[in-house]
Amino acid sequence: MIEARNISKSFGDNEVLKDISIRFDPGKTNLIIGQSGSGKTVLMKCVLGLFEPDSGEVDYDGRIYASLSIKEKRNLRKEVGMLFQGGALFDSLTVEENVMFPLNMFTRQQYREKLERVNFCLERVNLKDANKLMPSELSGGMVKRVAIARAIALKPKYLFCDEPNSGLDPKTSDRIDRLIREITTEYNMTTIVNTHDMNSVLNIGDNISFIHGGTLWWKGNKDNVLHSDNRELNEFIFATELTKRIKA
User: Fold this and answer.
1) S-S: 45 plus which of 1, 50, 143, 193, CB 3.0-4.6 Å?
2) What is the average per-residue pLDDT within 201-224?
3) CB under 8 Å to 29, separation ≥6 — which residues?
4) Who contacts 90 (Cβ-Cβ below 8 Å, separation ≥6)?
């Protein structure tokens, strides 16, 4: 479990986050939604430790991030998997080398052990025998699945996903959603997903936090998100759906 307690963050005179408190539960897909500029990306970066909040604290299962030593933060980093927007694969590395990258960085395993883990992760995302392919040879959906394989290579307790369906068609997006949901449940991970995709919200939104104007404006789940009387949430949903239909 991760808890963000009373998080505030400003950049100059711009107060981006205002006293936000959210709990992200293990074994659940915890979604953060909101308009561009609402503060959801800054919140995720504060939780990850990429930004230091001006006030408040982030708690990883009883470990207060700001209180950890450099060594303790490095050890915690081994427990975190990250799925970046666009996949962020290394273009010059093969699929196998991309997935093995965190194992090379954070473990002292023998090559055979690392290769076994790579093969397991690739098979888990339905990319068996894709080891020697280059990123340029992959479809958008395959890139995301390789990125997921890399994210789970270290058997993380915590998984962060930044716009995992960005640039994907609806069918492929559904596949990525199912995969994120499956591995979250299978490994009892605390998964945090930053997304604009309403299909993801309705498909895998176990816990949904709507950020508006830098504050936690609404909290619920996929079963009640469409039935809220929260005006700003309804406007966000309507605008998101309208934009998607125009682009289609």
Assistant:
1) 50
2) 94
3) 180, 181, 184, 191, 193, 204, 205, 206, 207
4) 97, 98, 101, 135
Model pLDDT for residues 31-59, shown as the tens digit of each residue: 999 988 889 999 999 999 999 999 999 99
Identify the bridge partners of residue 146 per DSSP, sorted by sequence position: none
CA 195 to chain centre: 9
Q: How far apart are alpha carbons 118 and 104 in whole angstroms?
A: 11
Longest dimension (CA), the chain: 56
Domain 2-247 has CATH 3.40.50.300: yes
What's the alpha-carbon Rg for the chain, to the nearest Å? 18
SS3 219: strand
How many Cβ atoms from other residues are within 10 Å of residue 176's Cβ? 24
pTM, entire model = 0.90
Task: State how far the Cα of 127 lies from the Cα of 162, in Å rounded to an integer.
Answer: 22
Residue whose C-alpha is closest to residue 7's, from 75, 64, 83: 64
The span from the CA of 60 to the CA of 71, in Å, is: 15
Distance CA 195, CA 83 (A): 12
Pairwise CA distance, residues 160 & 82, whole Å: 5
